[in-house]
Amino acid sequence: MKMVPLHQSARKLNYYVRMFTKELMDEIDYVIKNSADDSVPKRLTKSIAKSDDLKVYVDKLKVIHSEKDDDVLCEKLNEFISSVSNNNLSGDWETELKQCVRVYVPDDKVPWKVKFEYEPTNYTAWPVLHTTLDPSSPKPPWADEDFTLKSKKNELKHVKWNQEDELEGRKIDRRSREENIKKYELDPKTGLPRNPKGRTGMVGRGLLGRFGPNLAADPIVSRFKKMPDGKFKIVNKKKVLECIFIQRRDNHEWAIPGGMVEPGTVVSMTLIKEFREEALNVCHNDKEKAEKMTNKLKQTLFASGSIIYQGYVDDPRNTDNAWMETVAKNFHDDTGITNSFQLEGGDDAYNSKWQECSSELKLYASHKEFIQKTVKKHAAHW
């Protein structure tokens, strides 16, 4: 019997490589344009002499960044590393680039109960550890301490795993939303949470702030699609459902508008906040407009909704020690309130638009599964 691939997106070799190559490419590009300015902040590059031709590196990085096939990506990556002169780049770039390549884990070796000679790479992205390019800068307020450091081992003993915890005076919910998991296990060697779905080929946190579950909220705003004559669109005797999607800035993939639940914030408010910011481009920096829109959504469309899914998300950012979970909730428009919405991508989104829900949809991470469940709930065409 063929084994079903386990949390496959979380084991993609190329996600963090693509992210890091983009970061390196952007910095080289920036340094080239500001080469005369010695005060230009640098993390991965050194001072550049006039004879240096870093544009060649940018071209090679673009090729790596666009590569989808994992095997080809690794080949191009090794070629790039061997071609770079360390006269141009700092000593950190090669170490970080190698660290963000996941170790390959075969499908049958994913479960923890299966014995496997396993030496995963250890990677936590710079923005999770520092607020600026200065290595001495503190961690951002939404992130845990780096408990992998020996100096932090003592603090690790006081963390309340599988419970409600507190960080710098703000509440953090470290409980899992996964229905099949009463409590996630801790790694007996490190004392850190262990991914309940199995091995990912990477330890550390990647781009995730918390060890253990990192909770997000995904608002699924839907309505039945109407034709220009005002009648519902029908396919195979079923109405067609459409939902609001945003195009992510980081990878340009289409997704449900959503985001992380911040410490001390309830899920219901995060659902409104993320929809308001990403799909309607009404951000907190315009407090009056944001408050007005929040109240309107609370009293109308977001006054009631149905939970479509809550629990583990097969996300390409996941690691052995940190993983995404979400609460996906459907808010269906039966009154026509969404007709007044002016969709515009904002915050982490390029674009925002209504899109028909069908089996042809291509969406980020597990979002297609959430949409399929929503379509089924409304007995619509799929």
Features:
9 helices; 382 residues; two-stranded parallel ribbon; 13 strands; alpha+beta; Nucleoside Triphosphate Pyrophosphohydrolase; 7-stranded mixed sheet
Looking at CATH, the homologous superfamily of the domain at 215-377 is Nucleoside Triphosphate Pyrophosphohydrolase
Order of helices and strands: HHHHEHHEEEEEEEEEHHEEEH
Q: Per the principal axes of the C-alpha atoms, what is the gross shape?
A: globular
C-alpha end-to-end distance? 28 Å
CATH topology of the domain at 215-377: Nucleoside Triphosphate Pyrophosphohydrolase
**How many β-strand runs?**
13
Give the helix tally. Answer: 9
What does the radius of gyration come to? 23 Å
Determine the mean pLDDT: 87
| Beta strand % | 15-25%
Largest sheet entry: 7 strands, mixed
Ranges where pLDDT stays below 50 over 5 or more residues in a row are none
Going by helix content, strand content and strand pairing, the class is alpha+beta
Share in helix: 25-40%
